[in-house]
Amino acid sequence: MNDTRDRIVAAATAIVVEGLETRPSVRAVAARAGVGASTLRHHFPTQRELLETVWEKMFSDQYPDERIHDTSVPARERLLECLMNLLTPIGEGGQAREFWVQLLRSFEGIVSNTRTKSALADFSRGADARVESWLDVLSAEGAVAPGDRSRQVLFLLTVIDGVAIGRAMPASGDLDRARERGVLEDAIDAVLTP
Q1: Which of 176, 188, 165 is nearest to 90 (CA)?
Q2: What is the pTM of this model?
Q3: Averaged over 134-155, what is the pLDDT?
Q4: Which domains can be identified in the chain, with CATH numbers?
Q5: 144 forms bridges with which residues in the sheet?
Q6: Which residues does 84 contact at the CB level (< 8 Å), separation at least 6?
Q7: Which residue has the higher pLDDT, 43 or 171?
Q8: CB-based contacts of 171, cutoff 8 Å, min separation 6
């Protein structure tokens, strides 16, 4: 990326991360990046393109995936590592419960707030794109079973969601890492070639 484009993405990302706006306006991003609106539009003709770039940057920063490309490590192990990284911010036990409480509080009123719904949809698309990119890498190596890619992505993310919620449930006896790993390995085996 060039310096101006980097500044625009950094400004938009900062606005989202700081919670100032879930879908930052062109004017706010341009002002924060120190560029004119026309310069921003030159680099990002639509707000959707800007937001997709922001979500990709946020996912890349939060969930590094360089090892997905390391063919010296078995595909199953690389995908497991990437999926486990998705669980890192959630924590375990009390920390996981607090994570879910805060998440649910932050989305109170989501039904009536179109901007919040749009931000959540953007986040969901970002997660889908991230997992799909991992499967694309492994597919190019012949490691992914044939099938509907979007369904494979949904399946893996649904399992991740279940494990994440399981971490927060006190009745589950706080899932241990070995059981989590086993569940994720079962899910991975369902999408990789035998």
Answers
A1: 165
A2: 0.71
A3: 96
A4: 3-54 (1.10.10), 63-191 (1.10.357)
A5: 192
A6: 180, 181, 184
A7: 43
A8: none
